[in-house]
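Usage

Read records sequentially. Each one opens with the input sequence:
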Amino acid sequence: MVLAEGVMEMRILKRQGLSVREIARRTGHSRNTVERHLKREGNAVYTARPAVPGKLDAYKAFMSERMIAAHPERLPGTVLLGELRAPSRVTSRRKPRVRSQRKPTIPRPPFFSGQTSTCPT
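and closes with the structure output:
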């Protein structure tokens, strides 16, 4: 990220007649960066990224209550993770497979080590 002072320095050097390569050498930025900032009319406008929900946001209330309850003792992260993974708290994502949904197995003829053909599939 180039600060406003750096962009101003690039513009001053350009007005003095220096090439983009020479400006890049003197400022320590790449030629593409120098060209991009020289083409831009005003200063760069940086905006904050939108907040993205984290994986643990759903459990923050539980974790903070649990840590307050354990005060003044410290509660290790492994203990919290174990409590979060307890069967009463977290449901499994996998659906149990009913036996009738499985494909029936086809019996294969026996294969003996002395045979010359390959094992039938």
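Summary fields computed downstream for this record:
- The chain has a mean pLDDT of 82.
- Residues 4-39 form one domain.
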